[in-house]
Amino acid sequence: MQELEGFDRSTRRVRDLEVAVLDSRPDASPSTPVFVLVHGLGVSSLYFRPFAQRLAERARVVALDLPGFGHTDAPDRALRIPGFAHSVVDVVSQLGLEAPILVGHSMGCQVVVEALALEPQLARAAVLMGPVVRPEDRRPVTVVRRFLKAASAETPASAWLSVAAFLRCGPRWFVEIFPAMTDYRIEERIGDVSVPVTLVAGERDALAPAGWLELLRERAGGPATSHVVPGAAHQVMVSHADEAVRLCTTAGARP
């Protein structure tokens, strides 16, 4: 399995689990900007290549494998979104990260929103790429159809990353977590997020169309902006890594 080249791997004990963490600059000074990357359903931190490596040229980047994904074992019982959010909160705390920017993709957006709703001072900003799930898409058959439509618009490289990560996590854990993603009301919970939020999606993303981004922007509890990336689909940070880096660093540069 390929790794994020140049990143140090470690584990952090979080609620009886050893959570795998990748860190581009573990010895960085406190003044170095820090981005914490949170992946989506069925994948892992590997999914952020090459975006994470390009972002690491400008800042410290920390990426974790949520419980049951990548190099982090699954717990005895299926987690809901708050359980995943606590993993992020605990890792940020244990690493002593000061005012990081949280970056979520797909289900990872739900995890980031929940983490910031639980701990409003956890980060100074958030970037949500391809946030899911719209209320009208919450039936399993509908969201699967949307996923397939979005996947058909991806580049071969993007599609392969998804397949490789899914095979590692296994279909059983994917199926167990799927209801947690479809049941989570991100459009309600984002109102409890007070830090600046940057919403990002590809123009061909069937899961996160422009109108959905606008709804989330309007309902955010703090300042929020939305951006649609031309030519991109759901995996915007894979197919359009440079633009994703630009949007993240812009979000991190705001006071």
Automatic annotation (TrEMBL):
An example Gene Ontology biological process: acylglycerol catabolic process
GO molecular function, one term: monoacylglycerol lipase activity
Xref: SUPFAM superfamilies: alpha/beta-Hydrolases
InterPro entries cross-referenced by the UniProt entry: AB_hydrolase_1, AB_hydrolase_fold, AB_hydrolase_sf
Entry-linked Gene3D superfamilies: alpha/beta hydrolase
Domain AB hydrolase-1 residue range list: 35-245
Domain of life: Bacteria
One term under GO cellular component: membrane
Listed Pfam families: Abhydrolase_6 (PF12697)
Protein name: Pimeloyl-ACP methyl ester carboxylesterase
Species of the source: Tessaracoccus oleiagri
